[in-house]
Amino acid sequence: MLPRCAVILLVLLKLGHAQYEHLGYPPGYPDPEQEQYTAPQLAPDTPRIQLRLAGDKRKHNEGRVEVFYNGEWGTVCDDDFTIHAAQVVCRELGYLEAISWSPSSKYGKGEGPIWFDNLHCTGKEKTLALCPSNGIGVSDCKHSEDVGVVCSDKRIPGFKFVNTLPNHVENLDIQVEDVRIRAILSSYRKRIPVTEGYVEVKDGGKWKQICNAEWTQFNSRVICGMFGFPGERKYNARVYKMFARRRKPTYWEYSVNCTGNEAHLSSCKLGQATALKSNETCSGGLPVVVSCVPGRAFAPTPMTGFRKAFRQEQPLVRLRGGAIVGEGRVEVLKNGEWGTICDDNWNLLSATVVCRELGFGTAKEALSGGRLGQGMGPVHMNEVECSGFEKSITECFFNKEAVDCSHEEDAAVRCNVPAMGFQERLRLSGGRNPYEGRVEVLMEKNGSLVWGTVCSEGWGTMEAMVVCRQLGLGFASNAFQETWYWPGEVSADAVVMSGVRCSGTEMSLSHCLHHGHHLSCSKGGGRNAAGVSCSETAPDLVLNPQVVEQTTYMEDRPMFMLQCAYEENCLSSTSSQVPANSYRRLLRFSSQIHNNGQSDFRPKAGRHSWVWHDCHRHYHSMEVFTIYDLFSLNGTKVAEGHKASFCLEDSECDEGIEKRYECANFGEQGITVGCWDTYRHDIDCQWIDITELKPGDYIFQNRRSQASSTTR
């Protein structure tokens, strides 16, 4: 019985560990040991092969499996291929594991010989060449049977630069671990981000420079794109010549040949070995230097201060629904109406054109299937095909017909963005998992950098959104004005930032308005400091502007018929000073609020805490569901209305989506992803009180969804 109990206890311990493993480890506990990459030791008679992922792929970690053998690239047949074979492929390429595999040339038909057929791997082999098969080059397959794999995003530690360069030299054991731009001139060392310097590769644990004898502008374009910059520019070569004379470089032995439209250096070809002189300097050349042009949002600044918030002024293309800068659903403006792009043929080339157009680098990922939320309006573009050198996605070839496309196929991108160092100046402390905790910032105090808390006075969702974005943790699910239940670092209890007011679009909390060095916080820090909880997914509520425009009208209504609306603060403040027989002029309209996000929208309050309003005889699940503003053309707010949520439900849904929320019989309230809630124009408080406004042009804005239109 004792051994059996011990076994049961061990199993329970493992199950318990698995249940809470995602929460991470408390401070002070050692992290679990990570597997480190070691180059496989192969027997001398093992065939030397090299692998790559190619074809019509949307991510760098997926594609058609191609094998380099005997001086020629070929493919692998899908006969008898299993997830175990995919595991061997992904591990050999430096990825942690295989996610899935695809038969029947999903990533397009390859060329050349089919090197492997009827593979029978166990998953433990160190190279695909060790798996039993018909023999290298023995196959009865066609390229319509080429196999593809999807590997995990996580890479084996120590094998960072995974896709080894497809090379045209005999030695196939060339593997580069990492690439960087190292600032050389003192004027660039203190700038963030680093935009100019030596291109260095890490080979055998040592950083080495590349000889520029065969370097081209296309190579520089790819390097800049990798590091989040849309383009490259010329630099002062004389200064670098002087520097190279004073400090002897250590050169890498090979050259690189890029076409200029690769998303990553790993997709370029490796050229012939560089001819080095006897003193290990490259003949007729110097170390490669690149100078990159940053997008407007990332203009380099001194390390002591970052640039303020940046609002994109892009007239033709925008990203929506993304959690962090540089990702989102691609939307295009055509004939005054925003629409989406269908994901048919959507790939890294087209995604990179979008990223560069918006001031980012190359695309890390081309997402399909509405992965970053479904848009509204028409599908403007379908079957997009780009060369990679277009200035705008609108210059690419595309099919205007999108009959078979729906918003379930909306295309999205994740772009490379420059390393701004924002994550190093902010942290969450004391939470149960890495996605929540007290907000602590690194600020300058008395000439040194110290960690401290943020005053929670006025702290809300907009500020929490910036924190989650800055840390790369997704969306804000909650903003907390008390954090006594999250004991942070005692040394960081003091308030170092107060008066924080964010618009929600900033890349860093330091970009938001705040008091600077003159702090003011009556609540103090410690247990009353600001906190957040973040989520990888969130609802995205969008007002349909067409419905507003089609249903808007004005009504003059006597005050004695607006008693309930007056009690719920649905009229302007001047209404309290007028007699009961006077009239109020109301701008009435219907609103259709779509949930285009990745999770359902739910009221934060449970049914037990909903508020009963006796005048209207109904419950409010949210005191303010949405706010409507009117602005003059110079941006001054001149009128405001708000709508409480007495019934939040799925009025209608897109085809194939079932309604989940219904107000009848005190039911659960919310808006399902792909559904919308309609508030009709004839419902109380579905208006803006414009009694004091003069006739003219104004801008209408819904503050929750930021959709706007102009009305007269």
TrEMBL record:
One of its GO terms (molecular function) is copper ion binding. Residues 51-152, 181-293, 317-416, 426-535 form the SRCR domain. SMART domains: SR. InterPro entries: LOX-like_protein, Lysyl_oxidase, Lysyl_oxidase_CS, SRCR, SRCR-like_dom_sf. It comes from Amphiprion ocellaris (Clown anemonefish). This is Lysyl oxidase homolog. It catalyses: L-lysyl-[protein] + O2 + H2O = (S)-2-amino-6-oxohexanoyl-[protein] + H2O2 + NH4(+). Its EC number is 1.4.3.13. Its cofactor is Cu cation. Mediates the post-translational oxidative deamination of lysine residues on target proteins leading to the formation of deaminated lysine (allysine). GO terms for biological process: chromatin organization; collagen fibril organization. The lysine tyrosylquinone cross-link (LTQ) is generated by condensation of the epsilon-amino group of a lysine with a topaquinone produced by oxidation of tyrosine. Belongs to the lysyl oxidase family. Keywords: Basement membrane, Calcium, Chromatin regulator, Chromosome, Copper, Disulfide bond, Endoplasmic reticulum, Extracellular matrix, Glycoprotein, LTQ, Metal-binding, Nucleus, Oxidoreductase, Repeat, Repressor, Secreted, Signal, TPQ, Transcription, Transcription regulation. Pfam families: Lysyl_oxidase, SRCR.
